[in-house]
Amino acid sequence: MARFIFITGGVVSSLGKGLASAALGALLQARGFTVRLRKLDPYLNVDPGTMSPFEHGEVFVTDDGAETDLDLGHYERFTGVSARKTDSISSGRIYQNVLDKERRGDYLGKTIQVIPHVTNEIKDFISIGEDEVDFMLCEIGGTVGDIEGLPFFEAIRQFSQDKPRGQCIFMHLTLLPWLAASGELKTKPTQHSVKELRSIGLQPDILVCRSEQPIPEKERAKIALFCNVRPDAVIPAYDLKSIYEAPLAYHEQGLDQAVLDAFQISPAPRPDLSRWQDVSDRIHNTDGEVNVAVVGKYTQLEDAYKSIKEALVHGGMANRIRVNVEWVDAEVFDSTDAAPYLEGYHAILVPGGFGERGTEGKIKAAQFARERKIPYLGICLGMQMAVIEAARNLAGLTTAGSEEFDHEKGEKRFEPVVYHLKEWVQGNHAVQRKVDDDKGGTMRLGAYTASLTEGSKVAQVYHATTIEERHRHRYEVDVKYRKKLEDCGLRFSGMSPDGRLPEIVEVKDHPWFIGVQFHPELKSKPFDPHPLFADFVRAARDVSRLV
Ligand code: GLN
Asked: Are both 521 and 397 inside the same structural domain?
């Protein structure tokens, strides 16, 4: 049966709880243990699928088609363990389950209450698959003291009591603010945060303290004393140049040892950190740099394209090259020449997105890359834009567009080269959709197989002709335009196994121009860069060496 580590946060949000959890998962793996990471989010949305990326950052998609918090991306990038639907839950989903049960009559006429019905639902969720791994790491979103977080804190308290002694530990992340005026690190917010936790019955075993300044031994001892934690379980967490240094940095500060001590696992298996030493070496020892433009809509918030940013970094690691990512707002050149905004970049990436705003700019970015022979990677909407560009400018379909934009506007303006997909095959069953379906969870979601044309660029890049990638979209390139577009040089080099859904297009006679309907960025890891990103960065490097 698994041991459980509950990770909570206090003082302020955005302390890097997800990263600390992911790094701890990686360190436990380095000691030979198996792990699974879970996220429990207190907000009331059923899942983040309907939230704006401006609100919540990227929506991470799992193989089994769950739309989840971006922290699940960190978990996968650090541990390589594919997340599942059952690794992400929100209050909304918990309440939905409880209310469904109530309607079905499962509670046999009882009054439904937060304790025990909601807390039981949370506890059931936490223990799914508990026999499969050595350690289950459960991160609670938000900070201690948040009203909506209370049922989760209560549930993990009960959970630890239900289990045999020593099977659950609590790790709490806090901040030690630095007061420049007095030149001091302040421990009081941490003390208050722990007091808050203890008031709801949770005593942390480990405190991870984020700090800009070195934490003197004396302060560490003070935190231990006031927060009732062992001094060697007060772990400093300093800012890092790269998030991928976190496993080694946390190891140096003794986090994994403190966790094993808290579980009284002795002797502790020796860690094999070679994977992370190699990753660190690839970050620090680079030869050259490339500038990549990501032409998107949500450019003010980097978290909106989190996995893309990380996958580009991994592509850099694969080539030992530094990748400078510049966020370019497509809307700026919606109705003017794109060239002044795109000149000088060694590669252009158009990421996924929703809605019409900025799409004319993205189409221009695809045209610029195609005509100037700049490496282009179009992801999901970025592929659809590349197809529309080719339809308009190569095949002469001047009104080519996407039904998505007509639906948004409520009028028919475009020839639907990209159309609303209403029926497809998932595994061995047919999925059906209508235009007026609910928005939540109704896209084509999760892993699907694609068959690649032998001898195509993508088959070379993947070294394979059958691949599986994650999807999240409602609209699709219409295969009926295939012949027309192929005659103009846009090759449909990846298709769904039944040949109905275009998965990949590439431009012939171009050094590197690939559009993919799926999201390759979701599967890239620092120790296993995604082949498309590795080769895209290599192509960008080749361009940078020409100029
Ligand atoms: N909006 C497009 C669709 O739904 C693309 C989605 C995406 O880029 N993830 O098909």
From this structure: yes
* DSSP β-ladder status, 513-516 and 376-379: parallel
Tally the domains of the chain: 2
β-partners of residue 477 are 418
Residue of 417, 435, 474, 501 with the most ligand 1 atoms within 8 Å of its CB, for mutation: 474
- Containing structural domain, residue 338: 286-546
Cβ contact 91:39 at 8 Å: no
Contact 506, 456 (CB under 8 A): yes
Can you read off the two tokens belonging to residue 183?
Answer: 């030149």
- Cβ atoms of 270 and 260 within 8 Å: the answer is no
Co-location of 360 and 414 in the same domain? yes
Q: Do 255 and 325 fall into the same domain?
A: no
pLDDT digits 0-9 by tens, 125-161: 999 999 999 999 999 999 999 999 999 999 999 999 9
Note the pLDDT of residue 442.
81
CATH code for the domain of 171: 3.40.50.300
What single string gives the DSSP state of each residue in 182-237? TTEE--HHHHHHHHHHHHTT---SEEEEEESS---HHHHHHHHHHHT--GGGEEEE
**Protein residues whose CB sits closer than 6 Å to any atom of ligand 1:** 352-354, 380-381, 404, 472-475
pLDDT, tens digit, 9 for 90 and up, residues 321-347:
999 999 999 999 998 999 999 999 999
Q: Are residues 272 and 328 in the same domain?
A: no
CB atoms under 10 Å from CB of 271, counted, come to 17
Catalytic residues: 380, 519, 521
Closest CA to 307 of 247, 243, 365, 355: 243
**127 is written with which tokens?**
């223990």
pLDDT one-digit tens code per residue, 56-109: 789 999 999 999 999 999 999 999 999 999 999 999 999 999 999 999 999 998
290/275 same-domain check: no
Q: Looking at 236, 260, 279, which one is the last position of a domain?
A: 279
By the 10 Å C-beta count (0-12 exposed, 13-18 middle, 19+ buried), 333 is classed as: buried
Task: Look up tokens 């308290």; give the residue.
Answer: 157
User: Is the domain of 269 the same as that of 394?
Assistant: no
Q: Note whether 230 and 325 are same-domain residues.
A: no
Cα of 333 to ligand 1 centre, how many Å?
Answer: 21
pTM for this model (two decimals): 0.94
Which residue minimizes the CA distance to atom 10 of ligand 1? Answer: 475
> Using CA atoms, how far apart are residues 109 and 416, in angstroms rounded to an integer?
53
**Strands (DSSP E) found in 435-489:** 444-452, 466-473, 475-477
Of 83, 113, 65, the C-alpha closest to 21 is: 83
Looking from the CA of residue 382, the nearest atom of ligand 1 is 8
**322 and 461 assigned to the same domain:** yes
CATH number at residue 440: 3.40.50.880
Enumerate the β-bridge partners of residue 325.
292
Residue found under tokens 């809509």 = 297
Which of 247, 279, 311 terminates a domain? The answer is 279
Q: Which among 539, 536, 494, 534 is positioned nearest to 517, based on CA atoms?
A: 494
Positive or negative: CA dihedral 49, 503, 365, 287: positive
Q: How far, rounded to the nearest angstrom, does the alpha carbon of residue 98 sit from its chain's CA centroid?
A: 28
